[in-house]
Design goal:
Elements: H1 4-23, E1 77-81, H2 87-96, E2 101-106, H3 109-122, E3 127-131, E4 144-150, H4 159-169, E5 170-184, H5 189-198, H6 208-217, E6 221-230, H7 235-238, H8 244-251, E7 255-264
Parallel strand pairs: 1-2, 1-4, 2-3, 4-5
Antiparallel strand pairs: 5-7, 6-7
Helix pairs in contact: 1-3, 4-6
GO molecular function, one term: arsenite methyltransferase activity
Domain Methyltransferase: 73-219
Enzyme class: transferase
Length: 265
């Protein structure tokens, strides 16, 4: 049986491999291995026109642009969960400005190294990156105005604890805005595995209603989906692991979606 620790170790190694490949100048975003290796189609939105975009920090691993709808204000303290090489943290810093503070947390040492190097090259002294787990954040209570995340929380095995940690570190009156992957309808295991091989952020995705309910159970109010888009996984990708019958079952009312969600403490 796969344990939560096994899942986290697998995710950590996949993202470490991506960081290493980018360091070596490999433009691919394949985070698979062994016989299952294929080119993963990443599903992130286009950042080219986003102010504050830093190309060196773009690992092409997101599924949205959460800073677009996060209502970050100048001077805000912002936390980026699963910050990778710093893409959304640097975008948030552009909005929060020199009087703001941005902190990124990621569990992959290779990503933290890249993020810190990017921050140093940009001369940012109000952006910090810490290695740590989202379920056990190395941060004090109630210190952030805004928490953001981009296609990371769905990969966390213990979502209730992760959402509780989000709530703990947000100051009263603060809010979160995250982009993530959810599913709708029946998603057979074989279809889920095939979709995960096609779009690397699908692993761990749960039903949208369950996702929103967990956020409310953590204490958040006014939880709402601000943006959504369907992740189009072609049949030929699904049929690498799933049967025609399983794919047909999925197509009958099922979907994999990227949503951007906001809620308040």
């Amino acid at each position: 049986m796969t344990t939560p620790d096994d899942v986290k170790a697998s995710v950590r190694e996949k993202y470490a491999a991506i960081a290493r490949s980018k360091e070596q100048g490999d433009g691919s975003s394949c985070c698979c291995s062994g016989d299952d290796e294929l080119e993963v189609t990443m599903i992130g939105d286009d950042y080219d026109d986003v102010e504050g975009y830093v190309a060196e920090a773009d690992m092409q691993l997101g599924c949205g642009v959460p800073t677009d709808l996060a209502n970050i204000q100048p001077g805000d303290a912002v936390l980026d969960l699963g910050s990778g090489a710093g893409l959304d943290a640097f975008t948030a810093r552009h909005i929060a400005g020199p009087d703001g503070r941005v902190v990124g947390v990621d569990m992959t040492p290779e990503m933290i190294k890249k993020a810190r190097a990017n921050a140093a090259s940009l001369g940012f002294d109000n952006v910090e990156f810490f290695e740590g787990d989202i379920e056990d954040l190395p941060l004090e209570d109630e210190q952030f105005d805004v928490v953001i995340s981009n296609c990371v929380l769905n990969l966390v095995p213990d979502k209730p604890t992760a959402f509780a940690e989000m709530y703990r570190v947000i100051a009263p009156g603060g809010h979160f805005c995250v982009s993530d992957i959810v599913v709708r309808g029946q998603l057979p295991d074989a279809v889920r595995r095939s979709a995960e091989m096609y779009a690397g952020c699908v692993g761990g995705a749960i039903e949208e209603d369950d996702y929103l309910e967990l956020l409310e159970e953590a204490g958040f109010e006014n939880v709402e989906v601000l943006r959504r888009k369907t992740i189009d996984v072609p049949d030929e990708a699904l049929l690498k692991r799933a049967s025609k019958e399983e794919v047909a079952t999925f197509r009958d009312g099922g979907a994999i979606e990227s949503i951007t969600v906001r809620g308040q403490r």
